[in-house]
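Blinded run. Sample ID left blank on purpose so nobody reads anything into the name before looking at the predicted structure. Input follows.
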Amino acid sequence: MRKELFISPLKVHKSKEKFFILNLNNYRNAHHQVLAKTKREYGDEMYEPVSSCKPFSGLLCVHYTIYPKTKRTTDIGNVVAIHKKYFEDVLVSHKLIDDDDYKTIVFNSESFGGVDNKNPRVEVSVFSYDNPSELLSSHTDNIKSFLLNLI
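Blinded prediction complete.
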């Protein structure tokens, strides 16, 4: 198993003075030119961390952990939906994976990491498995650990 951690911004520049908060609510209401610009901006923000990474092989599992700036209730799915689209497209454009289809990325998950008013972000953990049985045993342990922490 190989694990890589990437730090993704919660917002990107829409213009010199305005930001675009990366969530589904904003995405569905934005003009297609704004979406194209924010996707490029996201790619630019992720260029440095992604460019130093070696290509992935085997089956991938991607986990998104959100750390919002405030205690305001957040719909994690709305935030992760856009990060998932943009981040996985960055992996393809940098040739770290051949495609972001279900044959390559076999599992996605998301969680709330806590409030971080000094460094709001989404942490993207990419797990690469060359052996499918290794994938199954690894995630079984992660699920057990997660459930035990809830009790």
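Unblinding after everyone has recorded impressions. The chain has one domain: 2-150.
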